[in-house]
């Protein structure tokens, strides 16, 4: 049976990961975090006896098959390197993969020769309703895709990568070729413990190699899908084709295919646990079979993050940016200067 561990248990995402193991053919054998009180509280809640304040020691003693990495993005690379050195087969890392151009380039370089398999925790991809809608679109139910609109109530670092990933999920054979964007607001660029730095709002037009265009909006300018004022509950995507459209939100869905309209609701929490479990199961499949590549693999994540950096560079330079990008230095610093 697969042996899994979690690094970083202080946030709600780690609790969702652990709860998902009720539906996973693996076992959570150990957890690690720097704060002893948080470590013991988490271990007691989920019945995990092996607890470490040093993840290096955990790798050595537990020899896990799968690591769930749930830390700020500022330490991603060092843990990837430690997992590679320890012979860990796979890492499933919380989004975002990186936070700025410099760590993106370092992670991209590391991934070229790494043996460890890395995927990003975009569990929305595996929500049952999202899976159903993605299959509809990929099977041609709405015809040829013409336009995709994706949005999130929080900024690019907190939720924007979810929205970017969803565009690729509904059109996986489309490759982004350029982006033109505007951003505003510097509150999200101030120092925080999570190091999730991004402008408060963005609007971006992304063009793809097959003629597809996507519109991405994040922050206060994103559409609100229910009456709840909380910013984090408004993730959504709409995909328009020659035969109709699909629309998914955190709380419901609708389709209009060949002039037949259907809609419904779902409970996000229930979908999320099942999505976490299916995402982990897909990682277990990839560990067992090199050909069963995880759809959230690091190459796809790097492509998505290249778009995010292209948004920043477009906003700074007031120009269309070709993709994939070799980002200009200190894009976040330049945004802070421009937006303050």
What would you note in describing this structure?
The protein is built from ten helices and 15 strands. With 340 residues, it is α/β, with parallel strands linked by helices. The chain has two domains: 145 residues, NAD(P)-binding Rossmann-like Domain (Rossmann fold, 3-Layer(aba) Sandwich); 162 residues, Dihydrodipicolinate Reductase, domain 2. The strands form two sheets. A nine-stranded mixed β-sheet has the order 14-13-12-11-7-10-9-8-15. Helix 1 crosses helix 8, helix 5 runs antiparallel to helix 9 and helix 7 crosses helix 9. The protein is globular. The termini are far apart.
Low-confidence stretches: none
CATH architecture verdict of the largest domain: 2-Layer Sandwich
Large-scale geometry: globular
Beta-strand segment tally: 15
Helix content: 25-40%
* Count of discrete structural domains: 2
Sequence of secondary-structure elements: EHEHEHEHEHEHEHEEEEEEEHHEH
């Amino acid at each position: 049976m697969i042996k899994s561990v979690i690094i970083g248990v202080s946030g709600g995402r780690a609790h969702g990961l652990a709860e998902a193991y009720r539906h996973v053919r693996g076992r959570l054998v150990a957890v690690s975090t720097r704060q002893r009180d948080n470590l013991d509280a988490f271990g007691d809640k989920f019945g995990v006896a092996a607890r470490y304040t040093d993840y290096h020691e955990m790798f050595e003693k537990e020899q896990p098959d799968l690591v769930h990495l749930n830390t700020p993005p500022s330490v991603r690379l060092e843990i990837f390197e430690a997992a590679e050195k320890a012979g860990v087969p796979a890492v499933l890392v919380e989004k975002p993969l990186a936070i700025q151009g410099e760590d993106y380039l370092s992670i991209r370089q590391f991934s070229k020769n790494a043996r460890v398999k890395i995927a990003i925790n975009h569990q929305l991809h595996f929500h049952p309703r999202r899976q159903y809608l993605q299959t509809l679109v990929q099977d041609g139910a709405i015809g040829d895709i013409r336009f995709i609109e994706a949005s999130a109530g929080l900024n690019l670092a907190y939720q924007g990568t979810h929205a970017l990933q969803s565009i690729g999920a509904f059109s996986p054979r489309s490759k982004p070729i350029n982006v033109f964007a505007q951003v505003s607001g510097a509150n999200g660029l101030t120092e925080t413990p999570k190091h999730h730095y991004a402008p408060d709002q963005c609007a971006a037009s992304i063009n793809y190699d097959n003629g597809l265009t996507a519109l991405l909006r994040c922050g206060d300018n994103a559409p609100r899908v229910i009456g709840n004022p909380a910013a984090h509950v408004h993730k959504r995507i709409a995909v328009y084709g020659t035969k109709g459209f699909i629309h998914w939100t955190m709380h419901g869905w609708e389709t209009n295919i060949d002039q037949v309209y259907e809609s419904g609701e779902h409970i996000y929490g229930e979908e999320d646990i099942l999505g976490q479990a299916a995402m982990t199961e897909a990682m277990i499949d990839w560990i067992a079979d090199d050909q069963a590549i995880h759809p959230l693999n690091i190459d796809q994540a790097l492509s998505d993050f290249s778009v995010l950096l292209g948004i920043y560079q477009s906003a700074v330079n007031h120009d269309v940016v070709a993709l994939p990008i070799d980002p200009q230095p200190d894009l976040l610093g330049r945004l802070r200067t421009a937006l303050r």
